Amino acid sequence: MTTPAELERQRERDEGARSAVSRYFVDDPDALEGDQLIIRGSTARRLNRVMRVRRGDAIEVIHPPSERLYDLRIERVTRETVEGRIERSRPLAAPATPRITICPALIRPQRFDFMVEKVTELGVAAIQPILTERSVIRAEGVQRLARWRRLATEASEQCGRQTRPEVHPPHDFAGVAAAPIAADTVRILASAVEPESRVAQLFENPQLPADVHILVGPEGGLSPQEARLARANGWQSITLGPRPLRAETASIVAVALVSESIAAHRG
Q1: Which of 71, 80, 84, 143 would you call most buried, defined as having the most Cβ atoms within 10 angstroms of its Cβ?
Q2: In percent, how much of the chain has pLDDT > 90?
Q3: Where do the structural domains in the chain lie, given as residue ranges?
Q4: pTM for this model (two decimals)
């Protein structure tokens, strides 16, 4: 007879095996064909040429159009398609709340790319790039939108997320800072001049907010006019620590501190 301890060890082994299976997002609404799922386009090419999947391999596919996650057994690999048999499916988990939206100023491309990957791994629900007076890149931001979305997708796959952050086109600072919001939203302004204001203080109410928006300025910070506009529209300044941080580091630290405060609130 199998003992409870043996059952628990088997469950842990099964969970470990499942977590080792690679996960991919497939947005094609026509990918499903009966008990088959056919992956086409750039994802198929990446699976074929980069990941080197072969017949018999197991992968997980998140299919946003059907809002389901599929366990797939690869049956056929061609130059442009990867075809697999669905062994199991389940609905996608509901997104976690509060939803965290990071609003970072546009900075140098490589640093911004790095930030997109890391805040995705930390679980943000949305990324809203902003154009500030001191932003380094401007017109290039719109052109890089497809790249940011690809980086967010790949980072979500790598860390096992079931949803990807929405990556919005860049908006001007005033449009984001002064945009109307729901009553159950907390607005946070990452600042180097508020040494006594801590993230945890914003989550002392018994009920957590539905959304948290975090605004992070560029290298050199926001202009005085931008800072005043943000505070006038309910953005609450908090400190990220005793040392000045690079803009991309500030975004990552701010998301981590907010996530930690939310977890501590839940206790």
Answers
A1: 84
A2: 72
A3: 20-91, 99-266
A4: 0.87
